Amino acid sequence: MRNKRIQLLTEIQQKREKMIETARRNGMASQETVRCSQELDQLIFEYQCFIKREKEQKKSMRVSFREMILSWKKAVV
């Protein structure tokens, strides 16, 4: 999971740099710059979804662990 996060962040940075260079070379409203911007938006969205899923999985694991501990306590008592 950590590798996926690093990969997405790397892709975001590379796309950002490409978009800036394209805007300098062709202008902010050029088709190529707009396309890079849209691709960057998509990468950022994917990253946000990834982080959200990661947080939900951690929360689910904590709840499951808590339930397991509580069931052990009931079994012991």
Automatic annotation (TrEMBL):
Any one biological process term the GO annotation gives: regulation of sporulation
Pfam families per record: SpoOE-like
MF (Gene Ontology): protein dimerization activity
Gene3D superfamilies the record matches: Helix-loop-helix DNA-binding domain
SUPFAM superfamilies: BAS1536-like
The name this protein goes by in its record: Aspartyl-phosphate phosphatase Spo0E family protein
Organism whose genome encodes this protein: Cytobacillus firmus (Bacillus firmus)
